[in-house]
Design goal:
The protein is of the alpha/beta class and 453 residues long. Among the domains are: 124 residues, no CATH class; 43 residues, no CATH class. The chain is built from 19 helices and eleven strands. A nine-stranded mixed sheet has the order 3-2-1-4-6-7-8-10-11. Strands 5-9 form a two-stranded antiparallel sheet. A hairpin with a 4-residue loop joins strand 1 and strand 2.
């Protein structure tokens, strides 16, 4: 938090170092953003053969950099501006304060924003949309299982048909893995230039354990280990046992090689098994829990594990149970450094799964969880076993954002909540009220709005 507070002073009203030093590449659709808050934008395919660095340095992104250097706030970064207007530290401050970005602060501050040769130090890449799960807030762009479902059954009957196959044409349609993908080709052309500069490299999906490019990266790193590299993979940890065993053996070898650190990100949104499995359709909670323990026990060096808890309106009731498990894991496995982390990014789309449409009673539940976290902060005498100050602040930031939106009383989103999950239950043989009995009054409110609109 102290580095973020320092960056709040240094950056001024608009500068964010992630626009230069971080990139998220969605190669199946040829889309790009610097972090997960701004909308994805298109990577021009023209010129990639001669300049594969254009995967990151797009004309759109250069224009945003110029604005920031003029102390102008780009509209696409509204999430951070909203947080700052509420007098909270934003992700702009946190990310810019991390060494992979902060080390280049002076260079960026004195740049024009139009440079072609910016090589990022933090790269996230999605090679493939193949995925074995159909998470409720995901889409065919990021899950082949979602695509298979809507190709067979059509979109969901929300006010604007959700995940309708007609939406996923042209730029929005993932390039099948069996076809030539110019963005993946450009990535591997860029890789020899990119790799020496990398500090953090993260593979997401889809489900990266199902993609051959993941293992191509692993083979490269094992052949040319990089002592300052943080190698990261995001997974649902729900793949079939043979694939998990293959992946696990690779990771064990990587953690015994000369890299700085391996981070296993785990996508999990509730500590209540039935809730978690409902949100992430196809997941086996107990399999995930077993593999978390397998990872932490059997690969004890050069690694950590981070839970990505996407804060949506179905995760509220099970959040504290998940954090209680995280505390147990910290006590068991974090001794000389912190091996068990978590983050609580908020879900903004689809609107019917947003925290902002829940009643105030659910914000009170989250407040009580934040208060409980405050009571369990780590101390100098007992480090690594409690919560960090900024982890509490991030949750309080989420609550502030939740309450900011509650004033809008988004009735259409409430109606769509009922429409979406009614169809979810019909298609996937699930039962919302049996899974979330404590949300019955909320369900009935949403049902009422759906029937009168």
């Amino acid at each position: 938090m102290s580095s973020a507070e320092q960056m709040k002073e240094d950056l001024g009203p608009a500068l964010c170092l992630a626009k230069w030093k971080q990139v998220s590449l969605h190669l199946p659709t040829g889309l790009n953003n610097s972090c997960y808050h701004p909308p994805l934008h298109a990577i021009p395919v023209e010129g990639l053969v001669d300049n594969p660095g254009q995967l990151h340095n797009t004309p759109h992104k250069k224009a945003q950099r110029v604005m920031m250097l003029r102390n102008e706030r780009p509209g696409e970064c509204q999430y951070c501006w909203n947080m700052e207007d509420l007098e909270n530290l934003s992700d702009r401050h946190y990310r810019s304060g991390e060494p992979w970005a902060a080390d280049d602060y002076e260079t960026i501050k004195n740049s024009t924003g139009l440079e072609d040769d910016v090589v990022p130090t933090y790269v996230e890449v999605n090679f493939n949309h193949a995925c074995n799960l159909k998470c409720s807030y995901c889409s065919p762009q990021f899950s082949s299982s979602w695509q298979d479902e809507v190709d067979r059954l059509g979109g969901y009957p929300t006010s604007t048909t959700h995940n309708d196959p007609s939406h996923f044409t042209g730029r929005n349609k993932p390039i099948p893995v069996r076809e030539e993908n110019p963005y993946v080709t450009a990535f591997w052309q860029w890789w020899p230039t990119l790799y020496p500069k990398l500090r953090h490299f993260r593979m997401t999906g889809g489900e990266p354990l199902m993609d051959r490019n993941t293992y191509r990266v692993f083979d490269y790193v094992l052949a040319m280990p990089k002592p300052d590299l943080h190698l990261n993979v995001t997974s649902n940890l729900s793949v079939d046992p043979p694939l998990w065993n293959k992946y696990f053996d690779y990771v064990k070898n990587l953690c015994n090689s000369n890299i700085e650190h391996f981070m296993q990100y785990v996508s999990l949104d509730s500590g209540i098994p039935a809730h978690a499995e409902y949100i992430r359709n196809g997941m086996d909670f107990h399999r995930v829990k077993s593999r978390v323990n397998h990872f932490l026990v059997d690969i004890p060096n050069r690694n950590s594990l981070t839970f990505i808890i996407t804060m949506n309106n179905l995760s509220v009731l099970g959040l504290q149970q998940q954090l209680e498990w995280i505390l147990q894991l910290r006590q068991q496995h974090s001794h000389t450094y912190q091996r068990v982390w978590f983050d609580t990014p908020v879900l903004r789309q689809p609107a019917w799964q947003s925290l902002q449409i829940l009643p105030e009673a659910y914000a009170v539940i989250l407040e009580r969880t934040a208060d409980w976290m405050e009571e369990n902060l780590e101390t100098a005498e007992d480090p690594f076993h409690g919560f960090k100050d900024y982890e509490v602040q991030r949750l309080r930031r989420d609550i502030a954002w939740m309450r900011e939106g509650q004033r809008n009383n988004n009735v259409p989103a409430k109606a769509d909540f009922y429409r979406f999950f009614s169809e979810h239950d019909r298609r996937r043989n699930t039962n919302f009220l049996a899974t979330f009995p404590d949300m019955q009054a909320w369900w009935q409110e949403c049902e009422y709005y759906a029937k009168i609109s």
